[in-house]
Amino acid sequence: MEHIYPIFDSLIQRQDRERLLRQRAKVVWLTGLSGSGKSTLAQQLERQLHEEGFLAQVLDGDNIRSGINNNLGFSEADRMENIRRIAEVAKLYLHTGVITINAFISPSAAIRQLVRDVVGPTDFLEIFVDAPLELCEQRDVKGLYAKARSGVIRDFTGINAPWEPPAQPDLLIPTGKMTIPEATQLLYGFLLPHIQFTETDA
Asked: Which residues are catalytic?
């Protein structure tokens, strides 16, 4: 755009920050229905990464919408803009060498492709947190599904707004068939080779 001059090339580079942190940054994107376990899994993964000496940051739907995206609603256009902004924030973290764990419904293939395009395909890891709709409704302590079914909440994914599960995620986690500790270990084991810093990275 006119009169905008990014200075990224003159700043300390990502590989220098990764060398300092002794880790490789990635954007871990947890997608799934409300109640599938995304936020809980993100929190547990962040804690385990911290205990293992990795620097990670969780970006979660409720926290983001109460802050940087508090001016957005839930229309298709606003959902797209919500995710676009989050992707840009995750990209900033990526360039500081930090692992971001993103827990967002991101209901369509187009929305998730937008994130992949912003972040870059080699740094974007799509994780499908898979739980049946019936189970998600049973877990719904906020009563959101009941409100959606009664018409109080409009455009609620899985009820009165479409849900497109990932066709080829990097990892599928069936949280309807395993405990959160089991799911956390599955995700951590998958992620570790992507974030480990080796001597060839130095």
From this structure: 106
Does residue 38 form part of some domain?
yes
Q: How many domains does the chain have?
A: 1
pLDDT in tens, 137-181: 888 878 888 888 888 888 888 788 889 999 999 999 999 999 999
pLDDT in tens, 61-101: 667 777 777 777 777 788 888 899 999 999 999 999 999 99
Q: Please give the model's pTM, rounded to 2 decimal places.
A: 0.88
Residue-range definition of the domain harbouring residue 32: 8-130+160-196
Is residue 2 in some structural domain? no
Query: If DSSP states are collapsed to H, E and C, what string results for the chain?
Result: CCCCCCCHHHCCCHHHHHHHHCECCCEEEEECCCCCCHHHHHHHHHHHHHHCCCCEEEEEHHHHHCCCCCCCCCCHHHHHHHHHHHHHHHHHHHHCCCEEEEECCCCCHHHHHHHHHHHCCCCEEEEEEECCHHHHHHCCCCCHHHHHHHCCCCCCECCCECCCCCCCCCEEEECCCCCHHHHHHHHHHHHHHHHECCHHHC
